[in-house]
Amino acid sequence: MAYWLLVQLALNGIATGCLYAILAISFAVIFAPTKTFHFAHGSVYVYGGYFLYQFAMEWGWPLPAAVPAAVLAAACLGVLVDRAVYTPLRKHGAGVMEILLSAFGTFIVLQNVLLLIWKSDPRTVRVPEGLKNGIPFGPLTLTPMDLITVVVAGVVVAGVAVFMRRTRLGKAMRALENDPEVAVMVGISTERVRMAAFFLGSALVAVAAVLTALDKGLEPTIGVNALLVAVVAMIVGGVGSFSGAALAGLFLGIVENLGIWQIPSEWKSTITFSVLAIFILFRPTGFFGHRVARYSE
Amino acid sequence: MMTREAFKWIRPIRAAMCGLVALALAGMVGVAWAQEEFKYGAVSPVTGPIPQFGEYFIRGSQLALEDLEKTGWIGGKKIRIVLEDGKNDPKVSLAAMNKLISVDRVPIVETVGSSVVLALGPVAQQNGVILTNTAAQNPNIRKIGNFIFSLVPLADRVMQSTAVHAVEGMKAKTAVMLYVNNEYGRGVAETFKKIFEEHSGKIIGHEIHAQGETDFTTPLTKIKFANPAIVFFVGHDNELGYALKKAKQIGMKIPWLVAPGVFTPLSLSIAGDAAEGVQAADYNFDPVAGTERMKAFGKRHQEKFGVLPTFATAHSYNSVTLYAAALKAGARKPAEIRDYFLSVKNFDGMAGPLTFDKEGITTEQPVMRVIRGGKFVTLK
Amino acid sequence: MNYVLYVVSLVGVYGILAVSLNLVLGYTGILSVAHAAFMGIGAYTAALLLTGWGFNFFFTLPVGLAMAGLVGAALAASTLRLRGDYYIIGSFGFQVIMYNVFLNWIDLTKGPFGIRNIPKPQAFGVAFDTPARYAALTLAFLVVSVWVARRVGESPYGKVLRAIREDEAGAASIGKNVRRYKISIFVVSSMLASLGGALYAGLISYVDPFAFTIHESIFLQALVIVGGSGNVFGSVVGAAVLITIPEMLRFLDVPTTVASPIREILYGALMILFLRFRPKGLLPERVSPGVGR
After folding, report:
1. pTM of the prediction?
2. What CATH number did the domain enclosing B120 receive?
3. From the list B24, B83, B91, which residue is nearest C244 (CB)?
4. Minimum-distance CB partner of B212 among A8, A143, A219
5. What would the pLDDT profile of C203-223 be if each residue is shown by its tens digit?
6. Which residues, 6 or more positions from A150, have their beta carbon under 8 angstroms from its beta carbon?
7. Mean per-residue pLDDT for C23-48?
């Protein structure tokens, strides 16, 4: 009997892991080309969910309209943060530290503006009837949202891979990541690529937020944890490897859920951070990182 | 690069900041001087994990003030509510209490939430200020002091009937407890466990969740596979709603028993039909099927705020009304108000007749309700 | 008046915390998001020893400082060799791990239930249990902290710190053991932060994990940025400004649901504005001419 629990936890873990994979890629897409530790990304995530809530529940839009609108709105928000905060600071000669600090300040401002608009009550987005109930498989249950999450994660991972390898913009992003000076010399517009990176990363994080809103419900406080997961997964997967980040996200989701088989559930997030600690200490390059990234101070 | 020119504008900014700081400090001293009305203090979780309890206070007290307006103030002086946001966080609440006592000089403070009551209680007792508690149930509240009044019965008295109902009414031999991670959850859960096991029940596991939690997948998965006879839930009404919803989603068929004061119309609105068949210990207050007075209150609340009131709303109403009654009887200092509260017998409160025992706890007993057809039905 | 004294004590406590962070952030250019964790170590040590073992408050201080110093040294040693952003992640990770320890190691810290009824400090028969006395106590410690920080910061040692901030490779090239400087200042800083935490515990009489989150760390950064990085007095000014001015909101008729987010937006926005327009902060660092930022 106990072993069915383990299987169920593994299934839960795969669904959670797929969500984490999307979070990880969303952060990596911004971090790799622009080297910005966009701490406010956690807040953009929360906004993505609340935008969906606003569009679908308060304004009554049908989901097929509300979801893309929410993703788009969040993407614009991410770009706005870069244009309004990071870029002016960069242009003014600010160092990595100042930009980092401004990211923290932005996070605080965004979080509290959200509280002003939507208060602190938890919010749910109503899921269409067919998607509500779980599908039993003997003693196990799969929920439709779990399945959707896995499918969406697959699409995102594949989509990002294709984008990075086949499209001009994607290749420009990778060029910027690997060798910024050469990229400029070759004529790549760094400003445009930055905007695209923030746009894409913020859109992806909003996708994760939409899945969370539909499955679990929203609260203003979920941003920090999501950011943490994204960062941990990115490191564990190896900075510079998107597939590594996705794989690491999946790995984290599974480890977390299997971990609480024997450990009490409230320690779940501690597991994530312990994984981080282990990797930082013993293998900072992560699964697939082949070099510790070179950053100029 | 900062040039010498740029330095010039920092001086007025510095001056402005000095001015603002001075103003702030002056303001703090100044407020204490305004003493035109009777003040009623409140530290409520207006923001934070359980903001609905802030709403319950605001609505209940508002209705009470409206009624007092109609029946007449005390000697022409109004009652003014001074509300501070405690966020259900003891340290934020302590700062708020500090301000209420030393700046606003209130004789009475209403609050909610076991962790907050336990933190504010000693401060209230030390300063000789009354603290009324509208929903917290941790048994340790009994021990704080004689300035603390609870409008709900505490867990140790209440769990007796709840646990007995689990064993005899629901015929449960095993249970898993799912409770919220604070003084309230722990206090009630431990009490239930003790009494349940005294009646030969067995607690085969427990799961803890965070305040304001919406994702119950993990604890419920474990509970489902542990297969107890019942799930005993302690937490806040919003958490319960999400828990029930998820339980239905993962195909859990185990009956639920909910601690008193948890299941409110809010839980029902979140859980929907997942709440069917859930049994909950509850308080007398029933805005739909209770006394005429309760029903009228329920109707009025529904018209004004669009939702039904909860027991906490009714108790906030009671607390303000009691204070007004004490003032009418001539009590002014907190010690006098305290004596008045203790002397009251079967006060005609919104939640039924109210009497405090000598420890300042209401003598009300809980009832058992079950959800049938989306409505609360009282079991005999 | 009691409330004013309470605010003064709060400014004292946060002044010490801001000074501690300034030593690593402002003088040495090491960004730490983990200072709330060191504050927490000081607070919990004091709280536990006071309530569980009946220690005298003043004797809890060496213990708290030692613990924070050791942990700080360990953290610095393991993360400071990581480059740039990796270091940030290490600091971030440490902050979150400490928070989780405070939250989940219930047997030790009582987790989310917190530690209540922490007694006020007393020494030689004098109890610091009135707001006036506690304010005096915190201000006394603030003065000591400022003095220590200034001695450290304005000494030749401090000049090397600033050199490390401006040009780490350059400092190394003239033979300075950069690593040792960084670790040592980090230890001093974490010890000061722990002192602030202990005074915090005494002031509020209640300690729980939710006081030591990343939000708190960010607030400390705001204090340093706005007050003036690289200037110890600036940190005190930063604390005075960012704590008292938002208090004013209580007295304008701002509804409670709105007051606390506005207070936070204020310090977040001030942080960004100062970074953009006045990175030196309110009280700039005293630099010799020729050193630009």
Report:
1. 0.86
2. 3.40.50.2300
3. B24
4. A219
5. 988 898 988 998 899 999 999
6. A14, A15, A18
7. 93
